[in-house]
Automatic annotation (TrEMBL):
PANTHER family: REPLICATION FACTOR C / DNA POLYMERASE III GAMMA-TAU SUBUNIT (PTHR11669), REPLICATION FACTOR C SUBUNIT 4 (PTHR11669:SF20). It comes from uncultured marine group II/III euryarchaeote AD1000_88_G11. GO terms for cellular component: DNA replication factor C complex. This is Replication factor C (RfcS). One of its GO terms (molecular function) is ATP binding. Gene3D superfamilies: P-loop containing nucleotide triphosphate hydrolases (3.40.50.300). GO terms for biological process: DNA repair; DNA-templated DNA replication.
């Protein structure tokens, strides 16, 4: 990814913040694989002049999808934010990076808002989300938001994850993983929810995720072509709502292997 010359217009805008020495709190939002982290890490390296010791000391990363609650923001995050730093007229500050902040509950977001209000003088908050509309308005009003579209690579808008997968030659190990996955999915018939539970746990413990399973939908002859696309759309929509990957895998196994003829028109009712 480092070799890619992407999002230059956005980087130019970030560089202007640096040159003016007026760096706001920033929300980077955009779809999965658009390069939000790539842009943020570029910016942090610029802020701290690629000094790894400063980045390690003055930057904290918080994955909000890992059930970070009110207590974390009221205690641990505040402790980091209020620790002393030599702040030369706002030119040097600590940075708090919040990944998947759209997963926070309303109460936790309120605690975060209070933390932002108290420590904005010596701390900058950088948020990465797919959907900024899930954040409270009082938080949005305190941030500069920057949309990160899919990068233009060789004339095509493409997810960085897809680009990286296409760039990596498939190893024997990867081929064996695909073969094992297909064997489990296509050779064993699901007859009960218990069968689905056993298979989903086995897949999860082997390190598979929903993204590994989705391509297999198109290899199942018993599912109509139209329903294959409906299933893929369904799983992409609900994926962001699940914090438990094993439960998401179970739902895939249940819908695709045990009940492939379920009425997809009413599936959202589940």
């Amino acid at each position: 990814m480092e070799k890619l010359n992407i999002h230059q217009n956005i980087k130019k805008k970030l560089n202007s913040f640096l040159s003016k020495k007026r760096i706001p709190h920033i929300i980077f939002y955009g779809q999965y694989g658009s390069g939000k982290r790539h842009v943020l890490f570029y910016f942090l390296n610029k802020i701290y002049k690629e000094n790894k010791e400063h980045i390690k000391k003055y930057v904290i990363y918080v994955n909000c999808a890992h059930k970070q609650g009110i207590r974390f923001f009221r205690e641990e995050l505040k402790f980091f934010a209020r620790t002393h730093i030599q702040n030369n007229r706002g030119e040097f500050f600590k940075s708090i990076v919040l990944l998947n902040a759209d997963k926070l509950t309303t109460d936790t977001q309120s605690a975060l808002r209070r933390c932002i209000e108290l420590y904005s003088e010596s701390t900058r908050f950088f948020i990465i989300v797919e959907d900024k509309e899930k954040l409270l308005m009082p938080i949005l009003s305190r941030f500069c938001d920057i949309y990160i579209p899919l990068p233009l690579i060789n004339g095509e808008r493409k997810s960085l994850y897809r680009y990286n997968l296409e760039s990596i030659k498939e190893t024997l190990y990867e081929k064996e993983r695909v073969r094992w996955l297909h064997q489990k999915i296509f050779e064993k018939k699901m007859e009960s929810c218990n069968d689905c539970l056993i298979l989903s746990e086995e897949l999860y413990n082997k390190g598979y995720s929903l993204l590994d399973l989705l391509p297999t939908i198109f290899k199942i002859d018993s599912i109509k072509e139209r329903d294959k696309y409906l299933l893929k759309i369904l799983f992409h929509e609900i994926r962001v709502e699940f914090r438990n990957e094993s439960l998401l895998i179970f739902l895939f196994v249940f819908l695709v292997l045990l009940r492939p003829k379920i009425d997809l028109e009413n599936i959202n009712a589940m």
